[in-house]
Amino acid sequence: MSYLMIFIGIVLFLLILSTLIVTLVHFFLAFFDICIGERYFPYKYTKGNNEPKFKVRYDIPAISYIFSIFPLALIMSIIDKYFSHSFDIYAYIIAASIYSIIMYLGMYRKTGRIDGGEYYRGLLKNHRQFLQLSFLPFVFFITVVGFVLATMDKIEGLPDWSLSSNSVSAFMDAIWEIPRDSSENHYFLESSSKLLLMLYIFSLPLQIISFFVNQISEYLFSNGQGYKRYLRKVWGGVVWIFNK
């Protein structure tokens, strides 16, 4: 039994590590999709079947959100290098917004014309349903914390919490320092489980931003023609003024 626990822990750790790398690759592919759309490597149909072939980077939203720490860290490092922005919650929000926009724009460019847009709508629905499901543990936790804070007159020694990298790091350290089983046979399994929990918590702000981007994408895809015609008229008017 002890060797089985070690094996499961190692397999879980390797699965998490490989998925983190895959998510980074998917991020670059999404950026590539924005540039070329469906001209190269399009979604192709299987023989004798009208369903598109499976494409992991858009069809499994759990990978895109929970395991997004590598592309987010890459974007944040660029922000820090060129804009001298410190590594804090605001840089994270900017990076998460950029990541979400790139992912959804790449998704649209790659799949927006398949079956008259029905496949793209299906992807949006898939992502939205996952985000709604993923919010449930977080909403439950916030509800419990809110109830405790509302019913307690005073909490002794409660430190001030600020939106900074130090507070986030302290929270992550507290999770990592959760007492574990004394048996070394469970080390890999418990460590991998804690790592997965930390990745989920780290991705929550990204998921909130992505849910907003998802709703905007669905609205514009269904009702964006009027806005497009309006912008074309405005642009035509600007060109006419400068050419006059």
From TrEMBL:
Q: Which UniProt keywords apply?
A: Membrane, Transmembrane, Transmembrane helix
Keyword Membrane (UniProt):
yes
Record's superkingdom?
Bacteria
Q: Where are its TM segments located? A: 6-32, 62-83, 89-109, 130-152, 195-213
Q: What name appears for this protein in its UniProt entry?
A: Uncharacterized protein
Species for this entry: Listeria booriae
